[in-house]
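Please annotate this fold before class:
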Amino acid sequence: MRRIAISVAASSMTLSLSACGALGVSGDSADASPTKGDDITVGLLLPETANTRYDKFDHPIIRAKVAELTDNKGQVVYSNADADAGEQSKQMQKMIDDKVDVILLDAVDSKAIATDVEKAKEAGIPVIAYDRLAEGPIDAYISFDNELVGEVQGRSLMAALGGDVDTSTKIVMMNGSPTDPNAKQFKAGALSELNGQVTIAKTYDTTDWKPENATANMTEAINEIGASNIAAVYSANDGMAAGVIKALEAAGVTELPPITGQDAELDAVQRIVTGEQYMSVYKSYPEEAEAAAEMAVAKVQGKDIKFDSLTADRVDSPTAKDIPSQLVPVVALTRENIIDTVVNDGIYKISEICAAKYEASCDEIGLKE
């Protein structure tokens, strides 16, 4: 069993997605909905649209997996809050009123949603926190190893800077939204690799993860530090990396410093090909989404052994202890392993990555069909 306290630093040991066997605990809940057959309804609440992964990967993969597991009798009811915590609360209340059988929740604001999680619990609807650890009495949690994400980003940034680095080397940290508990873990992981190695000249917690906010933050950093004095930029995700690049280019920077990212968005993979962005963190959305669907179906159908085998880890949130969980490993995505990651996993075709604008850069690094 792996136990993680979300409020403190987590171990960076990774896990295989395939479970290692059932634990001697029950995945059942006294307040869970009654055991059902294949005719189930899974409520899916996703947080925003700025990150393309949710509509492109998470929703369709979960929908397809639920259909597969229920002989096409189960359905997924989907809502996206577009980074509005109040809207997500209304969406969740509607799902409670509509008596869905289980809710997969990716919270906009992990703390604010706790009241709604409590309402679902009172209504006998299990809630599985998806990708972000919501507060309140959730039944389970699935996400990537978020502390490891930050560690991978930090190590990659140090590798990009090379050996000629000391504490006089200045970097900017563009962290994620302060309302997202994952952002705190990414930041902690990155700091474990960067502290004492370089000087963090400016650090920002970027509201709502929005690229335009990252652009504004980076513009401020450039004005205060000077573009030529910024050796690298830690960006917690790809969307903000684009915003960082926009600010640097607007300041007249032609040779961009190493910039990190996360999510392996198509635009980011193309920027990695051209050298504008140094790396991203590839997270296998199919693995996470399919496992979440399996957890939801097993929970509502009362398949305790299956549910326990899928949740062999334990995490603590600020409001709950020993939450059954699954943490999915991640990998650094660079020019060298594009084929081994996003291409081989079927996320993108080489023809998509190497569209006309990027064909020459793809040829330079040997990225061909």
The first strand starts at residue 2 and ends at 5. DSSP finds 13 helices and 13 strands in the chain. The radius of gyration is 21 Å.
